[in-house]
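Human: I would love a firmer grasp of how sequence relates to backbone shape in proteins. Take your time, and here it is.
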Amino acid sequence: MEQFWQFAGSFWWLVFPLMGVLGMVGNAWERGARMRHKRRLEMMHAKAELKAAQAAARGKAVPAASLPPITAATATVASAQGGSATASRETQTTQLERLFATHDAVTARWLEYELDVAKIIAFPAMSDGRQPLTAAFLRAKRIADGLRPASAKARLSKEQLAEYRNAVADFEVAFDVAERDARRLRDSTFTEDERKRLTTAKKLLTVAIDEAATPAERQLAYRRVREELDGLISISDEAIEVLENKVMLELGPVSSPATTGTDAAAPPRAEAPASPVPAPEPEPLLAPKRPSTMPPPAAGTWPVPSRTNGDSPGRVTHPKPHR
């Protein structure tokens, strides 16, 4: 180790030429990647044209991105077959409709990666403009969007139609190449700690959009997802809005306050018919007793024996109160 540090202290100035050499190597690798990407696009475009020619020879429908351009020869053939300017415009309208369908289909496929946070986490290269293939796709998309006519009935020259057709073909091929590369890379461009954060964000996202979870759990998981992805992946405002709409799911019908959870969950019970209860008979009203005005009898004469003969036993009688 001492020899190494002595060498480093003596030849520290070699760091600067080494940095220059490394920079040249990096630039050469980037130029090679661009050339490989360009050759790949040209090859895929040539294959698409070959498939279109084979389909046209078999009499099948030709894909919109591979339709042959309108040239003077094709216009002459159309005129020879009885087609006039109206027939030419109808052909152009049909081609524009097919080109619009292809353009919209590729845009819809791209929006699936751009607005779905789960796909953004699974394939982060599709939303990373620093990737060469993704950047090439975005440039092709901007060119195709700029050349797109206002409607299918718009009148275009042959050069404009051919230019838009080529732009749509490049747009479609560039998306296919970028999608394949993103599915190949996945999260390999991140470090180990960053991959752990992505895995945690993926698990929390499942909880955030789970209908069985409570609103508090969904909100907490949503905040955790934003924290884990902060600084790793750039998410568009539209994707955040879509995710918030998924998190704020409507709850089921709420029971009335008078109904408790136990009563609502318990099945209805059949009540036995109540036996008839006889109504209570009214008690007779008694007249209030008046106080007696007679003096109480003497103690020796109470009770008074009845008047009977001497042979029969005596009968005790009680005096009646005077009313």
